[in-house]
Amino acid sequence: MTAEQSRSPSSVAQSFYTRWATLYDALARRAPGVGSVRTEAADALALDPGETVVEMGCGTGANLPYLAERVGPEGTVVGVDFSPGVLDVARERTREFPQVHLVRADATRPPIRPTDAAGVPHDPDALLATFVSGMFDDSAAVVSSWADLVGSGGRLCLVDLAETTDPRWRPLNPVFRALVRATAPPGSRTMRASPTKLLNRRLVAAHRALESRCRVTHETTHALGFARVRAGVVE
Ligand SMILES: C[S@@+](CC[C@H](N)C(=O)[O-])C[C@H]1O[C@@H](n2cnc3c(N)ncnc32)[C@H](O)[C@@H]1O
């Protein structure tokens, strides 16, 4: 067994995203169409100035300026990620947004309890997670815990990639599978066996959990059906 194989998948994922933070950042911001998907996701949260929004698995912070602009200087944005390297890039990106706070933590067990200006704890108003649900063993339980975190009336938005179900573009699924295999963190050994199947299963479970906890307010697909945006209000 190699040293890498003996580490937990979570620890290998943190090293992976830390090592590739700069390259990932370029992809996260410049891939064709990704900017409009990020705008759409931020809009789907229906944020008002002064509100508090949490982004789970915020990575290099590609969504954070969109969120900060919507809640304004009197609002709060909390970016959560467990990989220190991506948080360094996110910190640099959001330097001019004092309302953005970055926390190194596990998104599956978030220690988030924002406080208002008087220091009184309150539930976040909204939560965003983009391209991250596929990384959780039990993605349905994680999404359900996020619904608990924002509470009744809070908004959730998930954006994820999986194989397309659009018959016109299904012939491209083998290319997608090759890309997923090439970019999966090396520690996710079970993902190596069939990373796309696992990604699809986790994505479906995450989005079903959102549907079961929320009144769905927004549902679209992009990028030939490979990207899904789904948002709702927790009931
Ligand atoms: C594919 S990147 C997506 C980053 C960002 N959301 C975006 O749209 O560009 C996945 C991110 O999720 C983070 N991540 C994965 N599992 C996590 C967990 N359990 N807790 C916190 N962060 C996690 C990784 O460190 C990585 O930055």
Automatic annotation (TrEMBL):
It comes from the Archaea. InterPro entries: Methyltransf_25, SAM-dependent_MTases_sf. The keyword Ribonucleoprotein does not apply. Gene3D superfamilies: Vaccinia Virus protein VP39 (3.40.50.150). One of its GO terms (molecular function) is methyltransferase activity. Residues 53-113 form the Methyltransferase domain. The keyword Ribosomal protein does not apply. GO terms for biological process: methylation. Keywords: Methyltransferase, Transferase. This is Alkanonic acid methyltransferase. It comes from Haloferax prahovense (strain DSM 18310 / JCM 13924 / TL6).
